[in-house]
Amino acid sequence: MSGLQAGAEQRREEPSARASSPSRFVLGLDVGSTVIRCHVYDRTARVRGSSAQKVENVYPQPGWVEIDPDALWAQFVAVIKDAVKAAGVQMHQIVGLGISTQRATFITWNKYQGLKLRDTERLKSPVARCGSEVCVFFIIEITVYLLICIFSCSLFCTPFELTKHSSGVKVQKAVEEDNCCFGTIDTWLLHKLTKGSSYATDYSNASTTGLFDPFGMCWSKIIANVVSIPLSILPPVKDTSHNFGSVDKEIFGVPIPVVALVGDQQSAMFGECCFQTGDVKLTMGTGTFLDINTGNSPQHVNGGFYPLIGWKIGQEIVCLAEGNAGDTGTAIIWAQKLDLFTDAAETEKMALSLEDSEGVYFVPSFNGLQAPLNDPCACASFMGLKHSTSKYHLVRAILESIAFRNKQLYDMMQREIQIPVTNIRADGGVCNNAFVMQMTSDLINERIDRPAHFDMSCLGAATLAGLGVGFWANKEELQKLRRSEMVFKPQKKWQEYEMNMENWVKAVKRSMNWYNKT
Q1: pLDDT in tens, 128-169
Q2: CATH number, domain at 81?
Q3: 90-129 burial by CB neighbour count: b if 16+ within 10 A, else e?
Q4: Does any domain span residue 11?
Q5: Which of 155, 312, 414, 505 could form a disulfide with 203 if both were Cys (CB 3.0 to 4.6 A apart)?
């Protein structure tokens, strides 16, 4: 995890491995909130070459994160070129490109010139959210029942931020002249790749904007009217695996087909081969995301988990229910900056060197607490510090807090989503930590499968693209290619952790409502 986030990275496979490889490849890109990655995959779904660069975020005011779209575009092009070079292949050997992107980040730009009207925007800090947190309440009548969806502002804030964004003079003028495009990052990159000839998004990305009705499978006129956003600026919604057009040949020298656009968590779900109803994915990266495959229809929610479109391929629609917890990898990186350890790989041994954290508890809430607590005003904290507390206790407390949050999310999923769990598969940089993985397995009393390849968002985008161009025949072939590195099985009973978790919950409650100034 720390290596990719340190800056630019390239990886090249051994010449002997490339010599016998097939002559065609697909690209999988993941444009994350901290890193942009590109992997070159062969027909066995193995990585042949890679490149990564750190995303440069801008913080214009407390609680706000912006990305310069032009800088992101330059990095996007660079990592593709570097990954292909690292793989020792030529651009004409790339048969398809799949793009996975961070969600809840948007940009508006000039339709005809392709010039940004403002930088991308994304809400982040609890300090900014506390006084103005808004939930989206909307009622959709579906044949014989009414659904009330309650979306937390932390992910589905797009409508409200777009309203403020659209109040800018440039944006208003462009809207009046029918010259304004709105899009999440996937739409912007597609528009740039095709030099304006393609303007679209996919169902997975659309479903995370807060502007999309997952039950009607269309942009919501109700929400658009409530927040005064003209539907005319929203992009057409296409299948996740779809011919979105080809990259203009001036960019890479050849017209590479863009055949998949997908949200990062949905992409990771596909990369993990969570194709069956009840399959669960646990992603532990910058934050934690727990997703369950709910079949071909969205689930009723009560405010903790939220319904999403996983992917749409032809007539197949797969829906998900998702819950999230922030500050997973963020907490580890923060601890590293405090010199509690040199490399994240050390934390596992540090935690295992102790019997317990000696009553020290960490609350991972740099950006508030998400479901099931939903408190944007909570603060991060250590509690139970003593004269005998060492950095080893602090590190163990941080790792334990990640497992405890996983337990909270899993229990909430069990309560809200009445679907039996079939498989649980983990991914993300933090899943490399065996201490966190084993403790999570113990707490939820389930087997957790850790794959051999952790960059599931890249793999999911690549496999969706590969299916679109016939690189792989079907999902059954992809399942045969999936490689498991280790399966964690419960070793301790929940009762052995019960008192520890009760004390941690007490610490969490002490940290709640900290930033509320009212």
Answers
A1: 444 333 333 333 333 322 333 434 444 544 444 544 444 455
A2: 3.30.420.40
A3: ebeebbbbbbbbbbbbbbbbbbeeeebbbbbbbbbbbbbb
A4: yes
A5: 312
